């Protein structure tokens, strides 16, 4: 065959590329794309770049055309919180006037946080979604299960309840309630005041894998309005089984629901979390995380979910952590105190109930600028990165030099 547009390999590079593009135009109707260039990587080697504002850049060319990168962002409670009141009022009015039944609102009174760097996607980072929900007195969400791992961090004094695999978990502010993938669960508010919590899920990951589904055909016994499962285990069941550190029962299965590698503990109480942090307050702590505790699967010692890791940390008045960056995304909820977090050289001042995200590869540094202890809850995709061999972390020492923390 003679060199021609039909034989791109025999042409000079520039002509070959033009020929390939012509072929691409022709092949497009078959929904294929012929690779015509070596696309730039998504980011430079982050561990070799020492600048405080270094972050991954968007790739070039066809492969990177639709790539988006999460940006550091701070959602201030005084700005977003009032929308929950407005949603709740709409729901109450609709129910009172008969315009809509309470059931139509009971499981969807919420707003989702949107990262400005992700083009309108309903997620705070590449693998994490967060919604903030409000439940009016009497609201009940139907019993269901789904593939995403999810959690609730209670922001109101009245925390309502979540029933998971027959275990009724009554909650209060600061509680962390886990609903692992493949567990039947429902939510409700049987108190006299609204319930507010932050829902955090690995939804974007499951969406990317085309593995998102929900099942509402509960096979067990229902109660009340037939939307909720009838509790078969008393509140505190998992706490009684696993509440003694380092001791686990030998007469039960540690798998609850149909999911794999998830924790059998569903409910962590806010007062117990704070007590654990306060008990460690006199320790030196970690220079990069201050006083921090992790929530783990008591049967295995692993993260509570295969994809998400949960932690709580305390910063004493005036305490500042050293800069740290890692390949995992970190999402934070402020449970107490006030301070700031520097992300890539940009300062974000936070206070109670604020939420903020630190995308992967970004330097971060926390500072308690208030007169009392600050408490942050965090969620990261660390276990996912560990499983695929991509978790690394760096910090800066007292002299500002970069040190390898996890390599």
Describe the structure in your own words.
The chain is an alpha+beta fold. The protein has three domains: 1-36, no CATH class; 40-67, no CATH class; 73-406, Jelly Rolls. 17% of the residues lie in helices and 28% in strands. The chain has helices at 13-27, 77-97, 102-106, 203-208, 237-242, 270-279, 382-387, and strands spanning 73-75, 110-112, 129-135, 145-146, 150-154, 158-164, 167-172, 176-179, 185-188, 195-201, 214-215, 222-223, 228-229, 267-268, 291-295, 309-315, 324-326, 330-336, 339-343, 346-350, 355-358, 364-368, 374-380, 393-396, 402-406. A six-stranded antiparallel beta sheet has the order 1-21-18-23-16-15. It has a six-stranded antiparallel beta sheet with strand order 2-3-10-5-8-14. Strands 7-6-9 form a three-stranded antiparallel beta sheet, with no helix packed on it. A hairpin with a 5-residue loop joins strand 24 and strand 25 (402-406). Mean pLDDT is 88; it is low at 1-9.
